[in-house]
Amino acid sequence: MRRVVFNQKGGVGKSSITCNLAAIAASQGKRVLVIDLDPQANSTHYLLGMAPDELETSIADFFKDSLRISRSRQAPIEYAYETDFDNLFIIPSNRELDDLESKLESRHKIYKLRDLIDALEPEFDEIYIDTAPALNFYTNAALISADRCLIPFDCDAFSRRALYSILDVLDEIREDHNSKLNIEGIVVNLFQPRASLPTRIIEEIKAEQQPILPVYLNQSVKMRESHEANKPLIHFAPTHNLTQQFVELYGYLTQNQAVKSESEASAVA
After folding, report:
1. Pair type for strands 88-91 and 81-82
2. CA-to-CA distance for 155 and 137, rounded, in angstroms?
3. Which of 195, 178, 188, 189 is nearest to 139 (CA)?
4. Which of 88, 19, 85, 47 is nearest to 246 (CA)?
5. Cα 220 vs. chain centroid, distance in angstroms?
6. Residues β-bridged to residue 151
7. Tens digits of per-residue pLDDT, 130-175?
8. DSSP string of 53-84, one letter each residue
9. Hey, is 3 helix, strand or coil?
10. Sign of the alpha-carbon dihedral angle for 167, 172, 175, 179
11. Alpha-carbon gap, residue 242 to 3, rounded angstroms
12. Separation between Cα atoms, residue 17 and residue 7, nearest integer Å
């Protein structure tokens, strides 16, 4: 399973959703990898508690290796770091990604990430990809490499306007590069249940038949506290309401995919 978390708007919780779903999967016995493609490296810091320049290798080193004509390549697993949490690994990000982007584009390396994930997939049960708030080379590479996509949505008018262009981008990626990419749904994040605006926006989007997922993630200071502690919520505050919402969301996604797989298997039979 390869899941990318994508939205072109910043501040919608991509890294928080990526890391917390991955941590829940790992806590349930899955062997899980997070790939951090955002030069800001929020997922890297969240899961490792270290800045990228404190680490020996990163995803940037993989891309640098792909640009070298003659090279002694690292084994794909050597780019991954084991976190302090059982079964959870990460390939960290680095600001060098910004400097590499134009070189990678000019050399048509858009499928190199998919090659890396192809090589790593036998090692892991689930792979999560965190992206920058931009439709850049790395985000396109992630969308080409993934088989599932979650769209975080923070119930704001700007996010609503951006949502339609995001869905158009995903349709284009599926048509031109990755027919297997499944839009799992829109994750309502930073939800304020007592405020009328978020509820109204969600109901209007539902009326348009957009794929809003049924589990909403509430806004909570506990998330910021878990960032500061460098501990995903399942380890930082396992009984908190927001943690349980994440557990419910993960359970829904897992069950929904199992039903879909059974349906596809029956259709083939």
Report:
1. antiparallel
2. 27
3. 178
4. 19
5. 20
6. 186
7. 999 999 999 999 999 999 999 999 988 888 888 999 999 999 999 9
8. GGSS--HHHHHHHHH-SS--PPPGGGG-EE-S
9. strand
10. negative
11. 21
12. 12
Looking at residue 109, what is its pLDDT?
96
Amino acid at 181: L
**What one-letter code names the amino acid at 56?**
E
Q: 206-229: per-residue pLDDT in tens?
A: 999 999 999 999 999 999 999 999
List the beta bridge partners of residue 197: none
Q: Is the dihedral of CA 128, 154, 238, 244 positive or negative?
A: negative
> What is the rounded CA–CA span in Å between residue 47 and residue 230?
6
The number of CA neighbours under 13 Å toward the Cβ of 89 is: 22
pLDDT-wise least confident of 31-40, 98-107, 152-161: 152-161
Model confidence band, residue 2 (pLDDT cutoffs 50, 70, 90): very high
Confidence of residue 6 (pLDDT cuts 50, 70, 90): very high
* Distance (Å, whole) CA 228 – CA 246: 19
Sign, Cα dihedral of 175, 177, 182, 186: negative
Cα separation of the two ends of the chain: 22
Say if residue 194 is exposed, middle or buried (CB neighbours under 10 Å; 0-12, 13-18, 19+): exposed
Element (H, E) at 139: helix 137-145
pTM of the full structure: 0.95
Chain centroid to CA 19: 8
Distance, CA of 202 to CA of 167 (rounded, Å): 16
Number of C-alpha atoms within 13 angstroms, CB side, residue 37?
Answer: 27
